[in-house]
Specification:
Largest sheet: 11 strands, mixed
Oligomer: single chain
Bound molecules: coenzyme A
CATH architecture of the largest domain: 3-Layer(aba) Sandwich
Strand content: 25-35%
Structural class: alpha+beta
Distance between the termini: 39 Å
Helix content: 25-40%
Order of helices and strands: HHEEEHEHEEHHEEEHEHE
Low-confidence stretches: none
Number of domains: 2
Radius of gyration: 20 Å
């Protein structure tokens, strides 16, 4: 067996453990297989009933690394295990180049708030899950003259990466994957990516996942603010996602400090269903 086939076999085994012991709202194959740089980012403590990962492939400019529990054999996370995981991630994060860790305060972590605080975790922001059950926010706004929407893949992938990177620069809580990961997910059959072109340049993008009507990304290119492009993207989302009369509500996740985005979504009848606190600890 080559070392790469040995490591992919090891990865399949970890993914198998996580499938047998799933954590709600956690995409273990993607976290373990795509969003980290290798074994040093994966805490493989299957003998203690847990597999977790530092997502060091999606660190922002401020070198903050997200952390996810991908598989958990017990109903809840025992205190000793919680403490050991937080120590272990703090040991590994600087070796992976991280200066801080973000921890989504999901139900798994809720009993361990005091522990997290005692280790230096503090509130950073909240992730808001929003949904729109009534897409009647008025007629579609007209596109700028000559502008048009088209699929991002396969012809506009580099432009898509450019808009994603420039648009998300300095947005709190936004983690932009590496270009190869973006190219990979754009090739997936259930991912839809649309891009708005004006004068041969990309000025905005929309990405969504079928069939659950989840909006993954709403981004206008850097330098294009004040033109109403956010609204044009939401109109495109409505055209793409509500054609089917039985379509489920449109949903998305946004950081509570992203005032521009929250205001845009509210104008499009999105309401907050759930908020998850995200804690940060600097090393
Ligand atoms: C969110 C985003 C798409 C909005 O795009 P935009 O082109 O600036 O928005 P629009 O010009 O269409 O504005 C639509 C409405 O949004 C709100 N809005 C836009 N910018 C705002 C700001 N800085 N503060 C408060 N509200 C704002 C306003 O209600 C505005 O309506 P108005 O112009 O009638 O007042 C854009 O800021 C962006 O790409 N941000 C970076 C990526 C991002 O954060 N995406 C969302 C992640 S979930």
């Amino acid at each position: 067996m080559t070392s790469s086939s040995a490591s992919s076999a090891a990865l399949e085994t970890l993914i198998g453990f996580c499938a047998a012991h799933p954590v709600p709202d956690t995409d273990a194959p993607r976290f373990l297989g795509r969003l980290n740089t290798g074994p040093q980012a994966i805490i493989d403590w299957r003998e203690r009933g847990v597999v977790a990962v530092l997502l060091d492939s999606v660190m922002g400019g401020n070198k903050t690394v997200p952390f996810e529990i991908c598989g958990l054999a017990s109903v809840s996370l025992p205190s000793v295990l919680a403490e050991d995981l937080l120590h272990e991630l703090a040991r590994r994060a600087p070796m992976l180049g991280a200066r801080a860790n973000e921890l989504a305060f999901t139900p798994i972590w809720r009993p361990h708030k005091q522990l997290a605080q005692s280790l230096g975790y503090a509130h950073s922001y909240s992730d808001c899950d929003m949904s729109c059950r009534n897409a009647e926010w008025g007629p579609d706004a007209p596109l700028p003259q000559g502008a048009f929407w088209t699929d991002a893949a396969p012809d506009w992938i580099e432009a898509y990466i450019e808009v994603l990177t420039t648009g998300f620069a300095d947005v709190p809580g936004a983690f932009v994957p590496r270009p190869e990961e973006i190219r990979r997910y754009l090739a997936q059959s259930n991912i839809r990516a649309r891009i708005l072109i004006e004068d041969d340049r990309a000025i905005g993008l929309l990405r969504y996942t079928e069939p659950d009507n989840y909006i993954n990304a709403v981004v206008r290119a850097g330098g294009q603010s004040g033109r109403g492009i956010g609204r044009l993207i939401m109109d495109e989302a409505r055209r793409c996602l509500t054609q089917n009369g039985n379509a489920p509500p449109m949903t998305l996740t946004v950081v509570d400090t992203n005032t521009a985005a929250i205001e845009l979504y509210r104008r499009c009848n999105f309401e907050i269903d759930r908020e998850v606190t995200v804690l940060i600890r600097r090393f």
